[in-house]
Design goal:
The complex is a heterodimer. By secondary structure, chain A is α/β, with parallel strands linked by helices. Chain A has nine helices and eleven strands. The chains are: A alpha/beta, B alpha/beta.
């Protein structure tokens, strides 16, 4: 089953058309990486499918339910109630974590499952502790975010997203606010998640990571998908000139 | 001597002039003559429609100056501060329908020139027709006025003291205009005042008010000079007597319609009494503190009640201000702009007098205090609202997006995520406002509510010393030290996150 289906997505900010025509599907258990130079529209695309931005054209479905359909050439969102349900099917990990600074690590993770999903707090607590264990942060539950390193904060943010039990998880450049050594610990977490067959859509600049983890790689430039396919094809034998230029620049 | 030494010396001499009678007024080659007067005391001294200071007393003073080749300086003073003005040499005399009776030992007096009596003024429709009807009524007098002295002063007649004991309340009011507004709106039942003023005010205000035939007391006006300054007194007095002789005095009295009240005469003995009041310092300090203590409770209630109401109200206003419903946000923006753009004193006057003068609703006695709290609350809530708004807007957009992704409702987001972070953001600004509020409580005097500072001014006026004002200053400072300490403690507590 496809957990995400995007058709002919368009998005403009004023006169600037940032996304010209993007279509993409992500199947269950897939790990899709989106590569591309700055300003190519990757982050905007992620914000559109996370519904932090409203789209100007196209259709979006999650786990088989339509969230936006096109009527008379205009995108129409389904009712608020339906959207609320659909939104529970995905999670998003931000580039700069956006943890709640006034809550402890544990409360950052448990607040939404308890108060949004209305689950029992004992159960949620137990799960949160397991998640922290998995993130290597078992002893940090009572810390406040400012007491943690950037890498630790991002792992808490991932745990917070996972605690909502999303079917698909979006990552918006999860390592670009981090030092190289801290980047490694986040990539390891993502690799572990990939091995557990977590469905993920990752915007990243880490080419080596994209090659080793992704089942599918998308290269975006100028608001369009320029090239896509298996990582070994797109990254090692790019057919498009723009992909080649981008990869060459990264290697330098 | 180095710079520091000089400035220390300057400061010391400045303090000296504050505490000791200034000798500058004794200068032989006088070119100026500064008259201190209450600019709201017609017909003796007031501001006319052209904005000039005029009046019977000022006309007399002008003539005296012309004859001596002096330049007349008319200095309107705050009535409560008159003794300090005189002591520091800021004014040469108090010439302003100034009652001698009861103040004989406090000034060096000229011969009396007006015989005045204290009378009672009531609304035309009032059921009060003689003094004994004032039982259980609210009676207003001007702060530190002859009428007040007639009821409570040391030299008050026993019959007046007994009469005052039957009043429901003896309310002190700063100026006659506001006293008449109080009378008209029913906040007070009677105003007791000088007969000349009463005649003038009644003629100006039409038939809404009337004067009782029975008089409270009889008294005389003189020119008050700094105690011991007989030289200047003699100069002014002899010029006045000249004016009496050549008829100028009578002309001026005619001009101000006071021919019936003047009593200037050479025969009146000039009495110079130099006995100083010798109450020991410590005793005086204790007595002043005891008097001020009565006002501390009032100041504290204004402070705490204002915070109690304005802090939550400010949050509602801030939310309205940020509302997407345009008419609401525009309305609230206008409200904040008006409140921040006009003086708090004026706002309190509007709240206090508004119900009667706008809607003809009579207000109860208790309304004076309620009006203070409403005025302060509406004012402070507007400031708090803007602080809240800045604090809410300072919460990073990433926090809102995280809430959106996790599925928080708007209410959950506001209460759980935005409020705690806002609270930490705004603490320093709130501290500033709270400290200002401590000092602003003194503004309640605008509608004659007796809090500590009003009391300090009254005591200062009654005891002719600035000590009460210093004590009041110490009170505000200590109060603010406690506030600052408490706020610092809360700020530290909020440092559990960054």
């Amino acid at each position: 089953m496809n957990l995400l289906e995007v058709k002919n997505l368009k998005k403009s900010f004023g006169d600037l058309q940032v996304l010209k025509d993007i279509s993409m599907t992500v199947g269950e258990g897939e790990v899709v990486s989106i590569l591309g130079p700055s300003g190519s529209g990757k982050s905007t695309f992620l914000r559109c499918i996370s519904m932090l931005e409203t789209i100007d054209g196209g259709e979006m479905s999650y786990c088989g339910s339509k969230a936006v359909k096109e009527e008379n050439g205009k995108p129409v969102y389904v009712s608020k109630q339906e959207l609320k349900e659909i939104k529970h099917s995905f999670g998003l990990v931000f580039q700069n974590f956006n943890l709640f600074p006034h809550y402890t690590v544990l409360r950052n993770i448990t607040e939404a499952p308890i108060h949004v999903l209305k689950r029992s707090s004992a159960e949620v607590m137990a799960e949160a502790k397991v998640l922290l264990q998995k993130m290597g942060l078992a002893d940090k539950g009572d810390y406040y975010p400012y007491q943690l390193s950037g890498g630790q904060q991002q792992r808490v943010a991932i745990a917070r997203a996972l605690a909502m039990k999303p079917r698909i998880l979006f990552f918006d450049e999860p390592t670009s606010a981090l030092d190289p050594e801290l980047t490694a610990e986040i990539l390891k977490v993502l690799k572990d998640l990939a091995q557990e067959k977590m469905t993920m859509l990752i915007v990243t600049h880490e080419i080596d990571f994209a090659r080793s983890v992704s089942s599918h790689v998308v290269f975006m430039d100028g608001g369009l998908i320029v090239e896509e396919g298996k990582p070994e094809d797109v990254i090692d034998n790019p057919s498009n000139e723009r992909t080649r230029t981008f990869l060459r620049k990264l290697e330098q | 001597m180095n710079q520091k030494g000089i400035s220390a010396l300057c400061a010391a001499s400045l303090l000296l002039t504050l505490f000791t009678p200034s000798l500058s007024a004794f200068a032989a080659d006088r070119t100026q003559f500064t008259v201190g007067f209450d600019a709201e005391f017609p017909p003796y001294g007031y501001q006319n429609e052209e904005g000039e200071y005029v009046g019977f007393d000022l006309s007399l003073a002008q003539e005296v100056c012309d004859r001596n080749g002096w330049e007349l300086k008319k200095t309107p003073i705050e009535w409560n501060s008159k003794d300090m003005e005189l002591k520091t040499g800021a004014i040469d005399c108090i010439w302003n329908g100034f009652t001698i009776n009861g103040r004989e030992n406090d000034y060096t007096w000229s011969v009396p020139y007006v015989d005045n009596s204290q009378v009672a003024v009531v609304r035309t429709d009032s059921d009060i027709s003689q003094l004994s009807d004032m039982e259980n009524k609210i009676v207003a007098v001007q702060t530190d006025s002859s009428a007040l002295a007639a009821f409570t002063g040391e030299d008050a007649e026993q019959k007046n003291i007994d009469l005052a004991n039957t009043f429901k309340e003896l309310q002190q009011i700063g100026d006659y205009n506001s006293a008449f507004m109080n009378l008209e709106s029913g906040s007070v039942d009677v105003i007791c005042m000088d007969i000349g003023v009463a005649k003038y005010e009644i003629s100006k205000r039409g038939d809404k008010f009337k004067m009782l035939d029975e008089q409270v007391s009889s008294e005389r006006y003189g020119i008050g000079f700094l105690k011991g300054n007989t030289e200047l007194r003699d100069e002014v007095q002899s010029t006045l007597l000249q004016m009496l002789e050549d008829g100028t005095f009578a002309e001026i009295a005619e001009e101000w319609d006071l021919s019936d009240s003047v009593c200037l005469s050479e025969d009146v003995a000039v009495r110079d009494d130099f006995t100083e009041d010798e109450t020991p310092f410590g005793e005086k300090l204790v007595s002043i503190c005891r008097q001020l203590l009565k006002g501390v409770g009032a100041s504290l209630s204004i402070f705490f009640l204002t915070l109690l109401f304005a802090l939550p109200l400010g949050l509602l206003i801030a939310l309205g201000r940020m509302s997407k419903f345009k008419p609401l946000s525009v309305l609230i923006k206008l409200y904040i702009s008006v409140v921040r753009g006009t003086p708090l004193m004026l706002q309190m006057l509007v709240v206090f007098f508004g119900p009667y003068f706008l809607f003809h609703v009579s207000t109860s006695t208790e309304y004076r205090f309620i009006a203070v709290i409403i005025g302060f609350t509406l004012n402070y809530a507007a400031y708090f609202a803007e602080i809240y708004r800045s604090g809410i807007q300072a919460v990073p957009v990433g926090q809102h997006e995280a809430c959106e992704i996790l599925g928080f409702s708007k209410t959950q987001e506001f209460i759980r995520i935005v409020l705690p972070q806002m609270f930490k953001n705004i603490l320093p600004s709130i501290t500033n406002e709270v400290i200002t509020l401590v000092k602003d409580t003194s503004l309640a005097f605008a509608i004659s509510y007796t809090e500590m500072f009003t009391l300090a001014k009254q005591v200062a006026a009654a005891e002719t010393t600035i000590m009460p004002l210093f004590i009041a200053g110490v009170f505000y400072y200590v109060f603010n030290l406690i506030v600052a300490f408490a706020m610092e403690y809360i700020e530290k507590k909020m440092n559990y996150f960054r």
